[in-house]
Structure formats: C-alpha cells, structure tokens
Amino acid sequence: MTLDEIKPDQECEIVDITSEGIMGQRLLDMGFIPGTRIKVIRNAPLVDPVEFELKGYNISLRHSEAKQVEVTLL
Amino acid sequence: MSDKSGSILVALAGQPNSGKSTIFNMLTGARQHVANYPGVTVEKKTGSFCLKDDRVELVDLPGTHSLTSYTLEERIARDFLLNDKPVAVVDVLDASNLERNLYLTFQLAEMDIPLVIDLNMIDVAEKRGIKINTQKLSQELRAPVVSTVGNKGKGKKRLKEAILSTSKKGQATPFRINYGDDLEAILDSLEKRLSEETEISTRYPIRWLAVKLMENDEEAQRLVMKYSQKSEIILRLAEEKREAFTMEHKKSPQKVIAITRHQEAQRIVEASVIRKKEITRTLTDRIDQVACSRYLGPVILVATIYLIYELAIVQGYKLTEYTWPALAWSRDLIASLLPSEGFIFDPFFRSMPIWVVDGTIAVLNYVPIFLILFALIAILEDTGYMARMAFILDRIFRYFGLHGQSVLPMVIGGLYVGGCAIPGVLACRGMKDEKARLATIMIVPLMNCLAKIPFYVLLIGMFFAAYKGIAMFFITTITIIIALSVAKILNLTVLRKKLSAPFVMEMPPYHLPTTGGVLRRCLERTWLFVKKIITIVILVSVIVYVLIYFPGISKERKTHYISQLDHAQQTFFKKIGKDNLYAGLMAGDNLMEFTRYWRDYKKAKMVAKSKKAKEAIDQEFREKNFEFFKIVKRGKYEVKGEMIKDKHAKKVYNAYKKLSKNTNKLRREIKEETIITSYMGRAGLFIEPLTRWAGFNWRVNIALMSSFAAKESSVATLGSIYQSPPGEKHRLEERMKEKEKGWTSLHVLAIMLFMAMYPPCIPTLLMVKVETGSIKWMLFATFYPIVLGTIIAVLVFTGGNLLGLSGMQAMIAFYILALILLVLMGLIKREPEFT
C-alpha cells in the first residue's frame, strides 16, 4: 500500500520511493528511506495535506505526494 | 583563500530550522550587510568578526536540507562553496535532530572543505533527554565540534576559536562515506578518469564530482561539459555505470547514495548519542493538536490573520498620525529653502521639488505600518506558525495554482480593507514553489491597498450612499474572487512552464522568537525598502510632474491671467485709498512680501489647535513684522496692554481678503488649465473615445493616469480637476456630481472596478522587479491589470447599459458572474503532480 492510504495515528514502515527526479530526491533528502518507521499525525482541516512524524521530526506532504511512498502497515 | 584586505572567508551552512541565523547574529553582532546573490532573489547576508589579530568574513548560506541542483537555494549554497572557495565552513546542526542534520554535513565534507561542527540549541536537546558525546562525534566526523545556544549567545568564544584554528590549519575534513563496494569501485574509476583532466580536477573536488555524476546531477554534468575536453566520454561512462548499477541492484545509485548517507548518520548518532528518556508528547504536539485541528485550527488562523491586520494596518495607521507631523515639518523645511512662490505663478524650482517631496513623504508615511508588518512576519516565521498557516490553507489555494504560503502575502497586501502591496510582495520571499510564488506576486497588487480606500470611499459616497456597507463589501471581496481566478489563468498560461516544487514541508517545533532577532529583521527589511524606494519614487514623480504640468499654458493665456491679476491688484489699491496709513506699506514689492506673510499666518493658524498654540503663533508673527501683524489681526491689536482699534488696518484687511480670494481663484484656474493642456491631459482627451465604453470621460482618465505614481494622488488630482467655485466650500463628492450631471451609478461602478484592478504603484513594481529578478515580470505586472481593468470596466458599463441595469443591479450581476468564473477556474484540472 502507499503512504496516502494510512490513517491518522497509524504507523508504518517505508518500503520504497516510487518517484524519481526532484520529488524522489526531496523525499530521500528528508529521510524517506526504506526501513524507516513513519507515523501519520493528522490531516489538515481540509484533509489535504497530511502531517507525518519520522525520525523525531514532523513533515507534511500532499496526498498526491504521499502516494509515491510505498509502505507496509505495522 | 584570504581576500585582499587580509580577512578570512568563512561560510555558514546548515539545514532550515537549525538556528543558523541566531549563530550568524551571535558571531557577527551588528556588523552585517544584506544583499542578494548575483542574479537571483535569494538574500545574501555577510558579516564579520575579529578575534585577536584576525578578521573573519562570514557569509550566511541559504538553509538547505541537501546540496542537489534541484532547488535554487541548494544551487546557490553549492556554487558559493565551489566557486568562492571559503577557507572553512561552519556547519550548524540542530542538536536535537542530529541524525537528519548530519545528512548535510556529509555532503559538505565531500566538497573538500575544512569543517567546524556547531551543535546548536544544545539546551533544547538536553531538555529532551538527549546527551551528545561531543568527543566521540568529533572523532567520528574528524572535525572539531562545538556546542552552542545561539539565541542565548552561549559558546560564542569557543566557536570563534574553532573557526580560526580550523581555517589556519586549512586542512579539508577527511571524513568520507563508504557507499559500498560496488559503488565505490565505480566512483574510483570515475575519479581516476576525472583526475586525468587537469582543468576540471584543479577546479573541483573530484570525489564530489564523481558522486554527483552517479546521482545524475545536471549541474555537475554541465561542469564536466564546460571544463573537460573529453566530456562526452566521461559522461557516457558515467551513464553506462549508472545504468549497469541500477540493473544489478534494482535501485538507482541516487537512491543508494541517499540511503547510505542516512544509514551512516544513524550509525554515528547511535555511537555518540545517549537518549535518557523516550520523547513523550512535546509541547509542540500539544499546541498543534489545537492549532491544526479540524474546527479550531481555521478559527485560530482567522483570528491570527485578523490580529495581523488589526495590529499592522489599523494600529500602524494610527501611528502615522504621530509620524506625519515630522514628515510635514521636513516638507515645510524644504519648502522654505526653495525659491519663493509668486502671486499666481510659482517658479519651476519650487513647484517641482515640492511635488516630489509630497510624493515621497506620501510613501514614507507608511513606514510605521511596514515596521509592524515586518516584525509580525518575522515572529510568524520564527515561531513556526507560518508553516501551520500553509498546512491549513494549502488545499484551498492549490485549486487556483497557489500555495498555502500564498495567504500571508495576500493578507498583507490587503485581503480585506487596507494593506500594502510592497511588503506583500516581499512576503512571497521564501516560497519554494516558483510557480505559485510568481502567481502570488502577480496577484498581491490586486488586493485593496490603503491608498485605494479613499478613492472607494469618495465614489461610494457619491452614488451608493444608500448602500454604503454593501458597496464596500462588494469592492473588498470582489478583488479576492478576481485575484484567485487570475492566479489560475496565469498558472495555465504564462506560468505554465515555470517550475513547481513538491509541497514537502517541515513542521518545525514551536519556538519563542527573540526580541533581538525580530527587531533586527524588521529594521533590516524596512531600511532596505526605504533605501530602494526613495530613489525610484523621486525619479518617477519628476516624470509624472512633467507630464502633468508641461508644456504649460500658452503665452497669450499667461498674459491674460497676469492682466487679470493686475486688475485685481488695482482694485485693491483703489479700495484702500491713497490716504490710508498703510498704503505705502503695501506698495510695490511689499505686496508680495505681505502675501507670503498672510499665507504663512493662515497656514500656521489652521494647524494650531489649542488656544495656547494660537497665542504663540500670534506672538511669533507679531515679532516678525508688527505692521503686517496689525493688518492680519483686522486692525485689533494690543500696544502696551491697551487694545487698539485701527480703522486703516481693518480697511486694508477687508480689501486684501477680496484680493486674496481673487488670486486664489486665478491660481486654481491656471492649475486646471495647465493640467487639461498638459501631455497627460491631452492623452486623457485622446483616449476618451475608447474609454467612453467604460464610462470614463477625459477628466477621469487624467485622474486615473496620474495615480500611477502613487494612488494616494488620485483623490488629490480629482480635487484639482473638480475645483469648487471660490467662496463655496462644497465637498469633492458634491462638486463632482455638479460637473458630471450625466453620471449614473453605473459610471461610478466601472471606475471603482478599474481602480480595484489598478496597476501596482511604482514602489510595488520595484519590489516585483527585486523579487522576480526580471524586468519582464515587472512589465507584465504593470500591463495585465490595465487590460483586465479595462475589460471589466467595459463589460460592466457597456453591458450594464445594454441590459438597462442600475449600478446596484450591475454590481450584483457582476458579482455572480465572477463567482461562477471562480468555481469554473477551481474545477479546471491541475497539471499532473510529480510522478
């Protein structure tokens, strides 16, 4: 499954990043690498974007961007 | 490399939110200089500090997570390191986020530079139970490590000493990441190949270049093409290796490199950090649970926006009441230094400078508002709430090709009533998404800036007096509706090819901003603004002056006015009679002198409010010229404690009052005639056949065109065009109604809408030039609103006329139309996201 499908308060582990180029590099730079645990904190009031916690810091992505992160639910 | 002056060049690098700017301030204190990196709009701060006999020149690089060539900031930081070759780099790390911050450190080390590691915000880390073994970390990274608390100035001396000793040693940090056997073998062969090329290998660190080629970095490829004779062979080799590696490992080298860096960071953190307690819910989490919640989040956001508006615009405007007298005083001071005025014609070197000074102080008047706004922006940035605003609003704005970060510039520009486009455009700085940033810059001037308000109030008072509230609501909200649609249209057309950026936004922990930091930034930005604006405003107001006052009235007309003046003066002398005691006093040049005395006295009296102030003015003018004083007091004055009634003086007073009225009337007629026959006036008449479709006659054309220098002048110009007959003090609205009998509320609606879409003022355009870095965008920002405003005005006026609508009906119809357009625009599909 992909990261955009994970509900708030659920935790998962990153399997792969499916996009290349600027988006892929940005995600890699921010620590979205395979094996990393990631927790969904909350959706924005209008559902998009969504806030995550990984490696002790918080980051927000749009759902369309989170779709490019493959994960498995923990 | 030391520069000529003997100072040592050091760069300051770090990720966003690492407290890099607090370190910069701590090290350099007040010795700072802000400019832009050449050719781009990113701020470049330089500062310096001395330690013993050495002077260090410190350059603050943009905060970046990485050093790829994908974003402007990263390219700038990288290019600086490669081309300016600083002697050392201070890498600022957020001590409580060590793992992620090390990711940048590794990339810096790869660039063959001596590094100083600064563990910043060590107090926050300790509070969170993170204990860092700095000795171990220093061993791992093979670089000196200093811990600091930037906003409290802790660790300043040790950091300075470390910088100095590292730059003196001049030895590049030898730490290198091992990317694994397969990749290392490839890197080895690439390095070997690159080292055979003397030019490129002396210019750039070859290990770094090899890694970048494996990452498929476009800039690195460009460097190879530029500086290597056998670039084709090298680039082909790199590509083959990349492809082969990807085939074999099912992962691109780019990905493997990033993963290895993160793993290495993790390993180092595990080796050198002791976590005493697991992080429980921090204060930030608890705040965000409310501040970003579904229902309360938007409420808090609206409240914050309202507070910004209230503090900066409303309270800031009140502050201008205190600063205005100072500006007015300086205007009078300058006026007193200029050649004196005449009876009816003022010398060019008086009227032109005064016009320029008036234009300049009209803009300077807003400085208190800027100060507050810039301080508030700094607070929003420093606390971290800015990111939350973008988080909450991104969804709405994205429909129109904007970004969550677009909201602040729009609020500052005047989302509701009253704002200022200048700081609004400036607030777009730091938006990562170039496409959304440009769109925001382009629509901010469509908001309702403070200078547009008096114009609205005037026109609404004229024709919508019964529906003041509704009309004001209409004009202030229609601008947002139109602006959002415009943003989407720009997004689909002229901005189509501009780079958009992923949203990926860090939500930094909340921070209490420091007073010093906020003050510094707000003063810095205000000063930058004042410096830039003044020169341009002066230049442009000279041009507008020439357009509005030249070629001037003809010789015949001039003689006509002079003979009228002569006539009025003769009547004056006839009236007072030859045997009047003051007849001699008024004769010849003395009359002009008395005129000045009279004007000064009247002006001084008008300004004075209290009885005491009025008495003081009397005393001053009495001392200045007692004989004149007798006349301006209508012959009633005190001599040695006795009240005297001087009939002769009273007679002169009465006669002069009549003369003064006549000369004022002549002055007004001359001004009106000058404007009408001026270049601007002729242009206004010339385009009247066209603007008639929008309901504008030449008088309106002149007023609208002259507003270009500064919208503040629109009401003033209308005031000069629609003079009130002497002796009658009608309000401007009434005078306009009197002269424009044929006007309906439809005319006024069209004018108002045109004003709402009015092109940005000169200072804003200048800001657009600075923030977009291009004259083309500045010209676009000037002309598209004219076209848009004209289309809307014609649509409303001609369309309304054809349908036989009243102003009110047309207003409602247009509002509905604009709303429909807005919804349609929102529904148009966005271009595909980054896939």
From TrEMBL, chain A:
Pfam families: FeoA. InterPro entries: Fe-transptr_FeoA-like, FeoA, FeoA_core_dom, Transcriptional_repressor_C. SUPFAM superfamilies: C-terminal domain of transcriptional repressors. Keywords: Iron. Residues 1-73 form the Ferrous iron transporter FeoA-like domain. GO terms for molecular function: transition metal ion binding. This is Ferrous iron transport protein A.
From TrEMBL, chain B:
Residues 7-169 form the FeoB-type G domain. PROSITE patterns: G_FEOB (PS51711). GTP binds at residues 14-21, 39-43, 60-63, 120-123. The lineage of its organism: Bacteria, Pseudomonadati, Thermodesulfobacteriota, Desulfobacteria, Desulfobacterales. Probable transporter of a GTP-driven Fe(2+) uptake system. Keywords: Cell inner membrane, Cell membrane, GTP-binding, Ion transport, Iron, Iron transport, Magnesium, Membrane, Metal-binding, Nucleotide-binding, Transmembrane, Transmembrane helix, Transport. The chain crosses the membrane at residues 295-314, 355-380, 407-426, 438-464, 470-490, 529-550, 746-766, 778-798, 810-828. CDD domains: FeoB (cd01879). The keyword Secreted does not apply. PANTHER family: FE(2+) TRANSPORTER FEOB (PTHR43185:SF1), FERROUS IRON TRANSPORT PROTEIN B (PTHR43185). Belongs to the TRAFAC class TrmE-Era-EngA-EngB-Septin-like GTPase superfamily. FeoB GTPase (TC 9.A.8) family. Mg(2+) binds at N25, T28, G29. This is Ferrous iron transport protein B. Pfam families: FeoB_C, FeoB_Cyto, FeoB_N, Gate. One of its GO terms (cellular component) is plasma membrane. GO terms for molecular function: ferrous iron transmembrane transporter activity; GTP binding; metal ion binding. It is a multi-pass membrane protein. It is found in: Cell inner membrane. It comes from the Bacteria.
